[in-house]
Specification:
Length: 154
């Protein structure tokens, strides 16, 4: 895995662009949280349930790289957060059948969230899309490694 640098945000000079970016930051914040939480769930699964230090450390490194990638825009993400009016928080989630289902659901959550950040991040910073894409492909690679490890546990 490669060293990740923080995204640099281009200055906004137009009020319309400010409000547009505010909505984009809100979307990025929701997906940033979704991706970090999903990574942490899988990381803790391999820290406590199926103890595997190598896999847990790889997941932690991706999670920390995700945080580092977004650190320059973190204040804007927090300012744009609007949990009270987010109707998505009331959507019920499915019951998990087993640990494999839990890991799979969280990998899908992480991959989708990073893809959203990749696409919308391009509207704020030219390098954002590339950085998120790189992280997404790291997640795809690790997902395969983890599922092969889980198959061998059966």
């Amino acid at each position: 895995m490669h060293k990740t640098r923080a995204i640099k945000v281009q200055d906004s000079t137009c009020l319309d662009k400010f409000f547009f970016n505010f909505r984009i930051y809100r979307l990025l914040d929701a997906n940033f949280n979704r991706a970090r939480e999903g990574l942490r769930i899988v990381e803790d699964t391999f820290r406590f349930i199926f103890p595997n230090q190598k896999i847990a450390q790889k997941l932690k490194k991706i999670r920390l790289n995700l945080s580092k990638t977004a650190q320059d825009i973190y204040p804007q993400l927090i300012r744009a957060r609007n949990v009270k009016n987010d109707f998505g928080r009331r959507i019920a989630e499915k019951k998990r059948k087993n640990l494999m289902d839990l890991v799979m659901a969280n990998f899908i959550r992480v991959e989708e969230a990073i893809r959203v950040m990749e696409e919308f991040g391009k509207l704020i910073s030219q390098e954002a899309g590339y950085k998120f894409k790189k992280l997404r492909f790291q997640v795809y690679h690790l997902e395969k490694e983890i599922f092969l490890a889980l198959e061998n546990k059966d």
